[in-house]
Design a protein that fits this description.
Layout: E1 6-8, E2 14-16, E3 20-21, H1 28-41, E4 46-47, H2 55-65, E5 68-69, E6 79-80
Parallel strand pairs: 3-4, 5-6
Antiparallel strand pairs: 1-2
């Protein structure tokens, strides 16, 4: 994946402006694999919402990927942004 443009947030963190959306992936197994594939391809922003009813599959994929999620201001080597609606 090419370098994704970023926006610098007020706290200095750079957030990708391009993400992978999981809307309309209702099957948990398919959703989990899609997120794993997206992360393996270099995506670091996964767009999800409670209304999609696939948050568990997204969480399982993130956990399996061993890539760190952003928690307040504590960062791992590679950060996943997970905007929730």
């Amino acid at each position: 994946m090419s370098k994704v443009p970023v926006k610098t947030l007020n706290n200095g963190v750079e957030m990708p402006t391009l993400g992978f959306g999981v809307f309309q992936i209702p099957d948990p197994k398919e959703c989990k694999q899609a997120v794993l594939d997206a992360l393996a391809s270099g995506y670091r922003l996964i767009d999800t919402a409670a209304a999609y009813q696939n948050e568990a599959a997204v969480g399982e994929a993130i956990k399996q990927s061993k890539i760190f999620c952003i928690k307040r201001y504590s960062f791992g080597r590679s950060v996943i942004f997970l905007p929730l609606k």
